[in-house]
Amino acid sequence: MQATRRGFTRTAAALALLGSAGLIGAPLRAQSARRAAAGKLIVGQSYPMTGAANEIGLAFAAGAKLFIDGWNERGSGPTLELRQLDDGYDATRARANATKLLADGADVLFGFVGTASSAAASEVAQQQGAAFFAPFAAADALRDKMHPHVFHVRPSMADEAFAMLRHCGILGQTRIAVVADDDAMGRAALQAIQDAAAELKMAPPVAAAFVKPGGTQVADAVAMVAKAQPQTVIQASLSPTTAAFVREMRKTGYGSGFMTFSVVGIDPLYTALGKETRGVVISQVVPSPRSNGNVAIVKEYLAAVGDSDQTASYEGLEGFIAAKALAEAAKRAGPTATRASLQKAMAGMGAFDVGGFRINLRPPLHDAARAVDLVYITAEGRVLR
Model's pTM, two decimal places? Predict the structure, then answer.
């Protein structure tokens, strides 16, 4: 199932994220004029190699590197030098990494994972006059026009929430509960669900419980949600927490549905839940790498995976797509690109087709095609639409 929609604008949230980056003036212009080495673009990425969300972070980063390695070997355009640092899914470390990467010569920040980490990277990039390309699970506030330096490849949380709520509406499910990580990502997801419910003229969530990110102590959340008697529970949490909640909620006798945002990661969730994953509906923002071999970008990705030691995954495909879009921007910016000219090239990429999957970086949206799939996993691990 697919859903496309206009993203939400949250000016107040965007202003909060802008923070001290609001007054940049001449120093920013000087940074923007910084020229990349002739024929080479240095790409700086910070992501969780360790800690919470490391499975999705490693898969996304591996997919990006897979494309970049092939791009450089083929000599298809400017050489992309990918520099990667571990932030352990910690926003403070992500901010420090962003600062270091740019200070050490990165021309663009790319593929930070997580809402708080992406907000930190955006602020640093704006201060330094650099672009921030393809954040993973960033807050929708970063899509506001106040952040013209941020370019998104994946659909927004608002788009995912809209798709899930619309699906619930089609099924006649009006009592929706939400369980979310108690962090920037979880709060952004809850806001997206509340906004989608209002837009669709549905009732607000009957319960909203926050849980410790990456934790498995979910008893209080289970009690709160069970008392509300929902018809569906939408989760915005990482795989360990999602798995623990599904398992414990079912022990209460709850026999209805579960839905999750794409940040959960299909493979980590199936590893954690096994056959108990059956019936869990998961939002996805790229084509299936398992059943869409007829889509050109999936075919290209699977061929690259086949020549590597990687295993195909949704997050790996997303990283591959993001890197391909970045390479196109670098090619359009030319061999003597500056940070400013690179951003201009990105802004001009309207309705770019990466291979049967279209993205749109055209101003003022700087958004993806925003097509969202809802899939579910069988007890045998098959992913079905």
Answer: 0.88
pLDDT of 116-140, one tens digit each?
A: 999 999 999 999 999 999 999 878 8
Task: Look at residue 30 and tell me whether its pLDDT is greater than 90.
Answer: no
Domains observed in the chain: 2-155+295-369 (3.40.50.2300), 157-284 (3.40.50.2300)
The C-alpha R_g of the chain, in whole angstroms, comes to 20
**Torsion, CA 7, CA 10, CA 11, CA 12, rounded to 10:** -170
Question: 157-174, pLDDT tens digit by residue?
Answer: 999 999 999 999 999 999
